Amino acid sequence: xxxxxxxxxxxxxxxxxxxxxxxxxxxxxxxxxxxxxxxxxxxxxxxxxxxxxxxxxxxxxxxxxxxxxxxxxxxxxxxxxxxxxxxxxxxxxxxxxxxxxxxxxxxxxxxxxxxxxxxxxxxxxxxxxxxxxxxxxxxxxxxxxxxxxxxxxxxxxxxxxxxxxxxxxxxxxxxxxxxxxxxxxxx
Length: 187
What we know:
Elements: E1 5-7, E2 14-24, E3 29-34, H1 40-44, E4 47-51, E5 64-74, E6 77-82, H2 88-92, E7 98-102, H3 116-119, E8 123-126, E9 131-140, E10 145-153, E11 156-163, E12 169-173, E13 178-181
Parallel strand pairs: 8-13
Antiparallel strand pairs: 1-5, 2-3, 2-7, 3-6, 4-5, 4-7, 5-6, 8-9, 9-10, 10-11, 12-13
């Protein structure tokens, strides 16, 4: 029985940060598949908002709030336990649940570090104030992160990629919702 879930509303600034994969052990712990290689938001928030799995049996419906007791890294995975999830059966009932956390609960980013979610939607201009596009997504290539911009040219939707590294990125202004880069329109 899931006594740890309480009906809730999804916060306006909620960000999906992962999914519950399966039960882990017999004492109510569960495995979490984070959407980020650095899942600090999972560790910083004591309240997760869950939406039920889209596939298979659902043990709850609507948005629920889960009060997290502990989150830790174990081998190459993240595991967690929560109030009211006291045994393996309760943990299994959470399988497939999508995890959301309020953006305001994320830890503060260090200087010159940004959460990807904060960069999506920003306009990108070059040093000559020419519009290069809007950040559609970011890609991790292993060596660096790449901004994927979408823009229009001759009525066609196109993409442009710019490495998100100091050699090309002059400034990120979250308040103005703009990134200034050393990049030309014909690159």
